[in-house]
Amino acid sequence: MKIAVLPGDGIGTEIVAEAVKVLNVLDLDFEMETAPVGGAAYEAHGHPLPESTLNLAKQADAILFGAVGDWKYDKLDRPLRPEQAILGLRKHLGLFANFRPAICYEQLTHASSLKPELVAGLDILIIRELTGDIYFGQPRGRRTATDGHFPGAEEAFDTMRYSRPEIERIAHVAFQAARKRSKRVTSVDKANVLETFQFWKDVVTEVGREYPDVELDHMYVDNAAMQLVKAPKRFDVVVTGNMFGDILSDEAAMLTGSIGMLPSASLNAQNQGLYEPSHGSAPDIAGQGVANPLATILSAAMMLRFSLDQPEAADRIESAVRQVLAQGLRTADIHSEGTTQVGTRDMGDAVVAAI
Ligand code: NAI
Ligand code: MG
Prior knowledge:
Elements: E1 2-8, H1 12-24, E2 31-34, H2 39-45, H3 51-59, E3 62-67, H4 83-93, E4 97-103, H5 116-119, E5 123-129, E6 141-144, E7 154-157, H6 164-179, E8 184-189, H7 195-208, E9 215-220, H8 221-230, E10 237-240, H9 242-255, E11 263-267, E12 273-277, H10 294-306, H11 311-326, E13 329-330, E14 340-341, H12 344-354
Parallel strand pairs: 1-2, 1-3, 3-12, 5-10, 8-9, 8-10, 13-14
Antiparallel strand pairs: 4-5, 4-11, 6-7, 11-12
The site of 1,4-dihydronicotinamide adenine dinucleotide (NAI) has 22 residues, from helix 4.
C-alpha cells in the first residue's frame, strides 16, 4: 500500500504529522513517502505542483494531503499560487468524485450553530462533482461587452458546462454510496433557470432507473441551502455539481460544529484517491500547535476504507476518535466548559492511545 504524503502549508504539516502517527500505530504494511506541495513546493522548486510530487502522487494508491495556501502568495500569478496544486492533482488524477461527510458527533452537538435537536445524530454525505461545471468550462475571460445591459463596458465571463458521461459517472457514485446507507439520494440543481442543470436533472433521473431500490428526489439549490439549516436530517446522500457542492458542503460542515472535524475524499474511477481535511491551511493559527488534527485523522480512515481496502482499520480509527471525544478531550476550536483543552499533538497522541 503506497501512500503519498503531501503536508503542504500552514497547519498542513502539523495535522498530517498526527495522521501519519495514527497510521503507523495500526501495524499495517504501508509505504509512505513525503513530498512538498503548494507554497512549500513553490519555495523549494518554484512550482506549487512539481513533476516529482505529481509523479509520486500518480504512482501511489492514495494521497494523504494536508492543506495549501497562505496570504503571502496572493500576489503570485494564478498558475503559481498554492491552490493550483490541489486543482492540478484533481485534474491529473481524474479525481471527479468528492465525498464530504457531515457527521455531528454526539459530544459536539452543542458546538453546532443550530439547535441540538436539529443536528443530534446528523450523518449526511455530500457528493460533489469535482472536474466539471463553471470552474473549468471554456470560454472564460475578460473582454469589452458588445451586448447586454452595458455594451462597451468591461466584463468578465465563465462557462457552466457538463457532459453526459460526467453526470452519469457521478450519479452512479451517488446511487452506489446510497445503497450502503439509507438508500436515499437528493440531487441538487437549478434546473428552473440553467440549461446545464436541466440536463443534469434529466441524466441523474435516467441513471436512477438502474437503482430502483434507491429513492431519488430533486431539489433546487436555493431550497437545499434553506433545508440544510431548517431540517438537515431530511437528507442522506446529496449529489450536486462542482460549484453548488462547494458551497453546500461548507454550509453542511458548519452544522457539525467545526470544520476541524470534517474529512474528505476525492476519488477517480480506479478508486485511487486524495484524502484531505475539508478546511484550509489556517494561516491564522499555523505553527501554534493548536489546530484540530481530527479532520485529517478521519481522512486517513476514509483512505483506508475507500482506496486501501482496510475497512476494519478505518473503523478502529473512527471509534478511537469517538473515544477521545467521550474522554472530554478538545482542541480549541471545539472546546467548551467542562472539557479538557489539548493541543494538536496531544490530540493525536490520545487517538494513538485509544487505538
Ligand atoms: P481555513 O479553512 O484555512 O480557515 C478558516 C477558519 O477555520 C480559520 O479561522 C482557521 O483558523 C479555522 N480552522 C481551519 N482548520 C482548522 C483546524 N483544523 N483546527 C482549528 N481551526 C481550524 O480557510 P481560509 O482561512 O479561508 O483559507 C486559508 C488558506 O487556506 C487560503 O490560502 C486558502 O486558499 C487555503 N485553502 C486551502 C484548501 C485546500 O488546501 N484544500 C481548502 C480551503 C482553503
Ligand atoms: Mg470550499
